[in-house]
Amino acid sequence: MATATSETGSVEETRTKTPEPPRATEQVHVFEPYRYALPKLGPYFRDVWARRQFATHMASSTLKGQHFDSFFGQFWLVLNPMLLALVYFLLTSVLGGSGGAGASAMAHFVGLLTGLFAFFYTRNVIQFAASSITGGGKMIINMSFPKVLLPLSTTFTAMLTYFPTLLVYACFYIGVHHSVTVNILWVIPIFIIQTVFSFGLGLLFAAVTLYFRDMSTLLPYVLRIWMYITPVLFSLNYIKSKTVPDPVTGKTSLPHWILGVYKWDPFSPIINSWNTVLVGNGSHPFAKGASYAPQLSELAVGAACAIVALVVGAWYFMSREREFAVRL
After folding, report:
1. pLDDT tens digit string along 272-315?
2. Contact in structure between 319 and 312 (CB atoms under 8 Å)
3. Measuring CA to CA, which residue among 132, 167, 160, 207 is closest to residue 56?
4. Cα dihedral sign, 9-10-14-15
5. How far apart are CA 29 and CA 2, in angstroms?
């Protein structure tokens, strides 16, 4: 019995010491510390282009969800900036004494509509994009796709809400100026430059809002202040005329540093190009006349600002895209 037990024990020890056959190699996931870096741009932009219909369909569905595709929805899109333009028209004409009467008053009102409609488009692009990432949390967590499609879809949404205002603006424009010239075609490159500029800022604020959630509350006030330091309510030449010393008293109506604020505003060349092409840019707030050719220097500066805004906004957004799901 002892011998059998020892033999049995030796057999079990032998089996225990026998090495197990090698297993098939398994995929090992190594989690490295996160580094801010851009993805491979070629595959990334090919993926964005392949999913471009996602952005357009999402924009149209967003408008339907907010009832902007109905008559009253589109009517409110037009009525809101028109009422605001009427308020500013009363302030600048009654209090400032610059509105004139009759045809000159209507020309001044159309000039206000020009700047306000253009600025509202940029404002909507930035505000919609700023909330695109925080508002699409479930989609970002559960799906793998280029996140730049979300602010791109909100840009399409802002574009679709902007087009109805152009039809109303065209009615006022033709009613005041009665004719157009070929120079009005300059609005196409100006609109493209403005869209690129607005989309770049939208990308920047979309990523910033994810880290600082209070930015969504602060942003409307920042944009409203920005409107006052941009030639929306008054043309740039009008500000220049108010900073020139009076030949008799030697005093100026406005301090000279205000002109520097207007000049260094990156959005000023774009708005001033709108004013120049559509309503002229004379010494008065909005001079009588229509369809002037813009200054190429202003267009070049506006295009440069748009490219810088797009590059900075895209770099900041795409370099932090991998962290969006964690931050949400």
Report:
1. 888 888 877 544 445 555 557 778 888 899 999 999 999 999 99
2. no
3. 160
4. negative
5. 52
Residues 29-59: pLDDT tens digits?
Answer: 444 545 567 788 888 889 888 888 888 888 8
121: tokens are 């488009």
| Non-local CB neighbours of 166 within 8 Å, separated by 6+ positions | 117
Give the integer Cα–Cα distance in Å for 97 and 180.
28
* Diameter over CA atoms, the chain: 131
Single-letter amino acid, residue 318: M
**Amino acid making up residue 220:** P
Q: Which of 129, 120, 136 is nearest to 309 (CA)?
A: 129
For residue 32, give both structure tokens.
């490295």
Nearest to 275 by CA among 229, 227, 243, 236: 236
Backbone dihedral angles phi then psi of residue 229, each to the nearest 5 degrees: -105, 20
Instruction: Give the Cα-Cα-Cα angle 45, 48, 53 (nearest 5 degrees).
Output: 150
Distance from the first to the final alpha carbon of the chain? 70
Say how far residue 79 (Cα) sits from the centre of its chain.
22
Tallying the residues shown for the chain, one arrives at: 328
Which residues 6+ apart lie within 8 Å of 110 measured at CB?
169, 172, 173, 176, 177, 278, 279, 286
Hey, what amino acid is at 327?
Answer: R
- What digits encode the pLDDT tens for the residues 135-167? 877 788 878 888 899 999 999 988 888 887 888
